[in-house]
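Predict structure. Input: DUF3147 family protein, 120 residues.
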Amino acid sequence: MLEISLTGLLLRFLFGGSAVAAASLISKRVGGPIGGIFAAFPAVFLAALMNVRLDHTGNELIMKSIDLTQGAMAGMAINVICAAMVGVLSAKKGWKKGLTFSVLGWLIVSVFVSYVMFMV
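Output follows.
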């Protein structure tokens, strides 16, 4: 279950790093909100999906892709909540505390949702 190939790691690194670099450049060029939209690009999900394709075929490929997609949809929903909380908490508590509390909240909610979705 936790097996990740070197190819998968490289794909995640390249897609994720490229997305972060592009979002940073776009944000500097046209402003934060538009850069934020590009920062939400699901590069790591796409790399993971490509990695599933490299490692599996047939029905196993379909099942693994569905599992990965369900997890990604839950993760993206949690990310929306986290982004909203960063905005609210940063305005009230300052950016350091707001970011820290939001990321801790993201971690707690992500672990809980993962447990409920995939362990129960």
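The longest helix spans residues 58-93.
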